[in-house]
């Protein structure tokens, strides 16, 4: 958190200098005259690095080379307005490039610090939930269960769960900011995982989906009837707590023969259920309006 705060402070100071550097000619002579397009290029670079993972995941040499090339390309496009090198223009070009690259490095540092902070929170929150793993971390175990189900003709069911966005919204005050909302959603996901962990059998596998707010349950030796009874129990549990859960179900070998196909079918089932819920909510709202008008 300390490093994140210092990185943000450093970027603010840098942007303050960048947008006011032409005012630092105390003797009245306007020596520093930066290209107007440089300001736009710097802001674009910072926004892309902060918002797109691919940019901030680049190594520093590659990142600096990329934005140096973007700067040179910009100068070549604007070559008619001012040369890239020569006399005072050499000094100005190196000043512009230096200011751009400092902004790029500071933006990358902030983005990486934010990722580290989020990962630390995530690790802390899930520290006591030993059953929750990422899907890619459990591939060997999943494939072993799929193989066992195929060989011995045993059923296997998969459930994709996602917290109900409407219930999350109801628990968030309207004035909280995006960061607080993200923490609230993650907190509810952790609570949901803890509640589910208490209900699972020893043979069940609880996985964290790549999509935020979703969990996956793989239930070996569980057919369609068994998984529906399990879901019914989870639904009654979720209604009494802070979270509300939508379910998508797939069963081997009825719906698919591989884990990826089972997951795809369960996600499609989940989306269908969410769409039906939205239609029900909209119909309830419309009926309420009609009653009020009447």
Structure description:
With 294 residues, the chain is α+β, with helices and mostly antiparallel strands. It has two domains: 2-125, no CATH class; 132-293, Reverse transcriptase/Diguanylate cyclase domain (Alpha-Beta Plaits, 2-Layer Sandwich). It has helices spanning 2-20, 36-51, 53-56, 60-77, 88-125, 139-151, 165-170, 178-199, 224-239, 259-293, and strands at 132-134, 156-163, 205-208, 214-220, 245-252. The chain has a five-stranded mixed β-sheet, sandwiched between helices. Helix 1 runs antiparallel to helix 5. The longest helix is centred in the middle third of the chain and has 38 residues, at 88-125. The N and C termini lie far apart (56 Å).
The span between the termini is: 56 Å
How many domains? The number is: 2
Strand order of the largest sheet: 1-3-4-2-5
Number of strands: 5
Query: Could you name the CATH class of the largest domain?
Result: Alpha Beta
CATH homology-level superfamily of the largest domain = Reverse transcriptase/Diguanylate cyclase domain
Beta-strand portion reads 5-15%
Silhouette: elongated
- The SSE string, one letter per element, is HHHHHEHEHHEEHEH
Unreliable segments (pLDDT under 50, ≥5 consecutive)? 172-176
CATH fold call of the largest domain: Alpha-Beta Plaits
CATH architecture of the largest domain: 2-Layer Sandwich
Let me know the average pLDDT. 77
Largest sheet, in brief, is: 5 strands, mixed
What's the helix count? 10
User: Which structural class matches the secondary elements?
Assistant: alpha+beta
Determine the fraction of residues in helical runs and give it as a percent range: 55-70%
């Amino acid at each position: 958190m300390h490093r994140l705060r210092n990185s943000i402070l450093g970027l603010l100071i840098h942007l303050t200098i960048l947008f006011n550097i032409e005012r630092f000619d105390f003797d009245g002579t306007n020596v520093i005259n930066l290209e107007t397009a440089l300001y736009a290029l710097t802001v674009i670079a910072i926004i892309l690095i902060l918002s797109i993972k691919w940019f901030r995941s680049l190594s520093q040499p590659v990142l600096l080379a990329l934005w140096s090339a973007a700067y040179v390309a910009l100068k070549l496009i604007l070559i008619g307005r001012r040369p890239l090198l020569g006399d005072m223009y050499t000094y100005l070009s190196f000043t512009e490039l230096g200011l751009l690259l400092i902004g790029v490095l500071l933006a990358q540092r902030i983005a990486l610090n934010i990722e580290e902070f989020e990962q630390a929170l995530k690790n802390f929150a899930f520290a006591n939930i030993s059953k929750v793993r990422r899907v890619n971390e459990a591939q060997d175990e999943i494939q072993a269960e799929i193989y066992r189900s195929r060989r011995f003709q045993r059923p296997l069911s998969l459930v994709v769960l996602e917290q109900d966005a409407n219930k999350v919204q109801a628990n968030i005050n309207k004035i909280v900011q995006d960061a607080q909302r993200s923490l609230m959603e993650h907190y509810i996901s952790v609570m949901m995982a803890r509640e589910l962990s208490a209900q699972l059998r020893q043979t069940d596998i609880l996985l964290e989906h790549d999509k935020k707010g979703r969990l996956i349950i793989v239930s070996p030796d569980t057919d369609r009837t068994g998984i529906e009874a399990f879901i019914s129990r989870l639904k009654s549990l979720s209604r009494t707590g802070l979270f509300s859960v939508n379910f998508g179900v797939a069963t081997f070998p009825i719906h698919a023969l591989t884990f990826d196909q089972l997951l795809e079918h369960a996600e499609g089932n989940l989306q269908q259920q969410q769409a039906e819920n939205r239609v029900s909510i909209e119909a309830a709202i419309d009926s309420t309006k009609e009653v009020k008008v009447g």
